[in-house]
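Hey, resending since the last one bounced:
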Amino acid sequence: MTLHDSPESRALAQQAAKLQQTSIAAMLEEDADRVHSFSAEAAGLHLDFSRHLLDRDSLAGLLALAQRADVRSRINALFSGEHVNPTEDRPALHMLLRASGVSDDPRSAEVLATRERMRECVALLRSGRHRGFGGHPIADVVNIGIGGSDLGPRLTSEALTPVPSAAPRVHYVANIDPEDLHGILAPLNPATTLFIVCSKSFGTEETLHNALAARRWLRDAGAADADMAAHFLAVTTNLQAAADFGIPADNCLPLWDWVGGRYSLWSAIGLSTAIATGWDSFADLLRGAEGMDRHFRDAPPERNLPLLMSLLEIWCCHFLGAGNHAVLPYAHRLRRLPDFLQQLTMESNGKRVSRGGAALDYSSAPVLWGAAGTIGQHSFHQLLHQGTRLCPVDFILPLAPAGADVDGRHARLVANCLAQSRALMVGRSEEEARQSLDQRGHSDAEATALAPHLAMPGNRPHSILSFPQLTPRALGALLALYEHRTFCSSVLWDINAFDQWGVELGKEIGRQVHDAMSGTPLGEKISQPGGLDSATDAMIRRWRDANT
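The structure tokens again:
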């Protein structure tokens, strides 16, 4: 196994132990070329990883580890359509969804045909030609999905339309909690509302029940069954289930089994984004991702952004002992990026067995979390600076505002990001803290007592991923970068990034629990709700008591 039983891994472990006593700030000061050597660019993005606890020997060792794991051949297998998802015997061809031309792959023509149907749909809605049962143009579009059918479109719609367009406005519903759908529908007019139901199987519990509730809402407002086609579109492979619901085949766009949900933004799942942003913007999002695809496929390892970011993840997690990873976008419009990346990374690489089915004897994916800067500075940054846990950070930084910056607030945003980066790196010694307290008028005794509380160790590893401006192309490249980084890490961890059996088990048990909850009418006593286990049975009884 590459991570434990290779000479490259053993050498890296020794280098990591040595570097624990090294100062990142000192390495920057001693090596005038470090910033250049520990940076790379692609598809409009610039990665500066000079502030990691990493020297030239350890970087070379990580690249050797990637060669030992044969990452290059696995990249080739991914792009050539080999079945890189062995447990489901499927390829992972999300790159095909953003390819700009017809390829030799027979699936390419169907992708382009679907893209053209999406473009036509967007034109109808944005021009006001698509009308509801009252004869008025559609004013609001509600995307009903969950997981990959929600997180990607929600992120990109908000990131690329900071001010909602006049019509149609786009909304998102994911939670089966009725408050989610109710809160969205309350101010809307049923006669001018369109729903997009996103479910490959048309059987995802949360999505289906929200869709059923949306249909009841329309019927209660006077819509007839014959009107439903004007108010529902679907992204699904199950045309029969959609037809049974009332959505004809002409209103259904496909989602193929060679596209995982968390990689599906680029497919018809992105229709709501295209409606919100306009077709040209969505097309640019695809072009940005395609540019990163070309870079990932063709760039040498030492300049390959996704591979370098993966190696940094492996270095921090496996060799330095980090169990979590923060992503901090210094852009309010990217505030949902951590949510999107949580699914991408933890659903992909949160695995306990190798591709061959053997139990791992090392940790795989770290816990990913984060929030938009500067908001996080007033909450969890305290832990980053003075906590006991090692938490590597990715700062995401658009260098220029997307709109006018008349009062210079974007410059202050950038300054805050760079200040947090510097503080993580240099920290503050007890002596520096004591001097600061002296200058504030504290006595020597007070300064001595307080100095440990003001001291910060620094030397916290992090990257800055920057780009000139948050444009559709930059966002497409950014999301594709993290997709490919996740894949490279799965290769190095020797796991399958494209299945999610842990998610499926929860769904199966959820159906069992619901059956037990609904097996006896409310108000009637039950002796044994479901025979599931005593704790679950007790909670079912408590639920019954609360609802009778």
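The mean pLDDT is 94.

Sorry for the duplicate.
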